[in-house]
Amino acid sequence: MKFPLTEDTLGKKLKAGTGLSVDCLTCKRKATLDVAELVKRLGPDHGAMLWSLIKVLFCQECRDAGRDDRNL
Ligand SMILES: [Zn+2]
Questions:
Q1: Residue 2 C-alpha to ligand 1 middle, in angstroms?
Q2: Does 72 map to a domain?
Q3: If you measure from the C-alpha of residue 59 to the centroid of ligand 1, how many angstroms do you get, rounded to a whole number?
Q4: What is the C-alpha to C-alpha distance for residues 26 and 18, in angstroms, rounded to an integer?
Q5: Predicted confidence band of residue 5 (pLDDT cuts 50, 70, 90)
Q6: Residue 49's pLDDT band (cuts 50, 70, 90)
Q7: Which structural domain range is residue 22 located in?
Q8: Does residue 71 belong to any structural domain of this protein?
Q9: How large a percentage of the chain has pLDDT more than 90?
Q10: Which of 2, 5, 49, 63 fits a 20 to 30 Å CA distance from 30?
């Protein structure tokens, strides 16, 4: 049985090599995420969808500037 390729976890995302990027709506900066680093931090079974990652992500530039840093 063959399932369609899904990249719903970080482990699958890393294997697929598609990468992951988010846009900060506050400073309009596009940040490319290091999937390998996220797998190390969160584990390969962690969800790779934005709503799974929003809890652990923030915009470094906005945090440094004291702005809302989770407006991704
Ligand atoms: Zn920002």
A1: 40
A2: no
A3: 5
A4: 25
A5: low
A6: confident
A7: 10-65
A8: no
A9: 49
A10: 5
Indicate the pTM of the whole model: 0.73
Where do we find the tokens 């992951």? 20
Q: How far is the CA of 70 from the centre of ligand 1 (A)?
A: 8
Number of domains in the chain: 1
Task: Assess if residue 2 is contained within a domain.
Answer: no
> What is the Cβ-side half-sphere exposure of residue 51, based on CA atoms within 13 angstroms?
0
Which token pair is 1?
């049985």
- pLDDT tens for 24-45 read 999 999 888 899 999 999 999 9
> Is residue 5 a part of any domain in this protein?
no
- For residue 49, which amino acid is it? M
Q: Is the pLDDT of residue 72 over 60?
A: yes
